[in-house]
Amino acid sequence: MSEYFLGVDGGQSSTIAVIGDSRGRIAGWASAGPCNHVSASEGRAKFLRVMGECLSQAAVRAGLGDGTRLKFRAACLGMSGGPDDKSALLAELIDAERMVVANDARVAWAGATGGKPGIVVIAGTGSIAYGENERGETARAGGWGYIYGDEGSAFDIARQALRAVLREYEGWGPRTALTPAIMEITGKPNANDALHLLYTPDWPRSRVAELAVVVDRMAEEGDPVAGDILRNAAQQLAVLAGSVRRRLWSDDLATGPSAPYVAWIGGVFQSRILLDRFRTLVALAGGANIGPPHRSPAAGALILAYRAAGIMLIPEALSGIKT
């Protein structure tokens, strides 16, 4: 019977599990809801339910029954919010000879670079840069949450847009097309009423972050304020990448043809304006080796599961999920 390996990307918006065999073939996969918070009792119950459902569905697709007590040779699970409070819970669900519980940034890096030395910059609701070099040394920049960090993230872009709207409202900022756009979305007559709405439970952080799409649309239509917000976000993300690069690679290896691969992941990079500026800034800093991710974070987790068992494999791509 073939040995099986498990990779899981447990994020703020969804959880994806991928089962691979000993040859790197994807046997099954499944997705479920988010599993990032376990601090409260209801959070732990939700975490166990989401993980259980995801693993069971992946096992069914792989033709391995319902996943009950399915034994893996190795498993790697990347968890948003850190692994410390989830390791014991995962041990209740997963039977693996070797199990690695990592930060979600590490599995994103492994997927983006194919497990090779390099850097990944992640910018969705939040943001972080993470890298590993040839010696296995690691470094991160950012990822400190929406209050103290997450520079260049979707939430940060939305926050800067709302600040611009408030400056116009108070008469000390330029006019911007962001104002009527956000008034239309919130259904409020002015910035004061809109801001009070955005502080309510009806507008959690994830929903506020979705306003970044509005900023991109206004920038594409020529609004200079929106364009400046996106270009500034790109600069902040490039700074995160540069910080990781300087700490992991010496000057003679950090630039030119030998520069580490820098990949981007996350919905923020769907903005053409932001991505173009980000690529330009990374290249100007000496990192010409920049591009999209080779594989998804879930595939990155599977790569690390193989490595935990001493196997150097890159899983095949799978139709229906970007692995």
**Which class best fits the helix and strand makeup?**
alpha/beta
Any idea what the shape is? globular
Helical stretch tally = 12
Q: Separation of termini?
A: 24 Å
**Strand/helix succession:** EEEHEHEHEEEHHHHHHHEHEH
Number of domains: 2
CATH topology category name of the largest domain: Nucleotidyltransferase, domain 5
Average residue-wise pLDDT: 87
**Beta-strand content bin:** 15-25%
Largest sheet: 5 strands, mixed
CATH class of the largest domain: Alpha Beta
Helix content: 40-55%
The radius of gyration over CA amounts to: 21 Å
State the low-pLDDT regions, or none.
none
CATH architecture identity of the largest domain: 2-Layer Sandwich
CATH superfamily of the largest domain: ATPase, nucleotide binding domain
Verbal overview:
By secondary structure, the protein is of the alpha/beta class. The chain has 2 domains: 4-104 and 296-308, Nucleotidyltransferase, domain 5, CATH 3.30.420.40; 115-293, ATPase, nucleotide binding domain (Nucleotidyltransferase, domain 5). It contains 12 helices and 10 strands. The chain has helices at 41-61, 87-93, 104-113, 145-148, 154-170, 178-186, 191-198, 205-209, 212-220, 224-248, 272-284, 297-308; strands spanning 4-10, 15-21, 26-32, 71-79, 95-103, 118-123, 127-132, 138-142, 261-265, 290-291. It has a 5-stranded mixed β-sheet with strand order 3-2-1-4-5, with helices on both faces. Strands 8-7-6-9-10 form a 5-stranded mixed β-sheet, sandwiched between helices. It is globular and about 65 Å long.
